[in-house]
Amino acid sequence: LLAAVGVGGISALGPKTSLAAGIGIAVLALVYSRPAVAGYLVVGLTPLLAGIDRGQAVPFFRPSEALALVVGLALAARALLGLQTGSRPRLQINRIEITIVLMAVSNSVLPLAWLLVRQQPITTDDILYALVLWKYLGIYLIVRASITTQVQVLRCLWVSVAAAFAVAVLAILQSLSQIG
To answer: Are 64 and 167 within 8 A, CB to CB?
Structure first.
């Protein structure tokens, strides 16, 4: 009932926003019930959504960023609600995560600090470029948290090949229409 009231309120803002909210709620529920779907969606849909600009389909976000945000929230909610009272969450950080975090820090904090030291204005583009590796870290964590078995890894590989095939077919069709 609460979700229906929320979608009804959002639909007053416009059809595009209400459609995005409805899809977001459906994806949230699906990922909460089946976490592996988060990995499949991110691996399969990100290449297909890569060319859509920020704010075109989803306000404030690129569609691939909105998808990652929704599935990340669903996985985080599932993890938080799955914690037992009094238990401590186990975080196992390996060398890959440490390396990615160090790369993200050196790609975001250092350039912005350098701009500040040189007394250059920090633009929106500077901030968006600084967030790129943090977004990659988020995608990595989503796939790592949701894909846990060898069968799921194999499915991810097949989903990735299918997405690459679809992108290749779209590229071929686009190039043929530009030539002829």
So the answer is: no
**pLDDT (tens digit per residue) in 150-161:** 999 999 999 999
Q: What is the pTM of this model?
A: 0.79
CA-based max dimension of the chain: 67
3 state DSSP class of 161? helix
- The DSSP secondary-structure symbol of 25 reads H
Per-residue burial over 107-128, b if 16 or more Cβ lie within 10 Å, else e, is bbeeebeeeeeeeeeeeeeeee
pLDDT tens digits, 28-57: 899 999 999 999 999 999 999 887 877 776
